[in-house]
Automatic annotation (TrEMBL):
It comes from PS1 clade bacterium. It holds the Pfam family TatA_B_E. Keywords: Cell membrane, Membrane, Protein transport, Translocation, Transmembrane, Transmembrane helix, Transport. It comes from the Bacteria. It is found in: Membrane. GO terms for biological process: protein transport by the Tat complex. One of its GO terms (cellular component) is membrane. This is Twin-arginine translocase subunit TatB. The gene is tatB.
Amino acid sequence: MFNIGWQEFLIISVVIVIILGPKELPNALNFVLNISRKIQILAREFLSETENIMTKEDIRKVKQTIKDIKFDDNLIKEFNENEEVKDE
């Protein structure tokens, strides 16, 4: 994900333990995990709503196309003329 090797991870871990201390480390990890969970929930909701909007927009376009075809007399006349040509 971040292209961090084990050596970099070890150095970062040691620095965090030195800065926060062993007593505050569990609280800091809980805070980071809670933030991470909230971000994941928000991302899932965002993707879900985006898919819903896209689906609704697609359905609206299909309905409009059907209405356009249904009420387009010129298109029906052209279709009928083409059918007459094929019949001959």
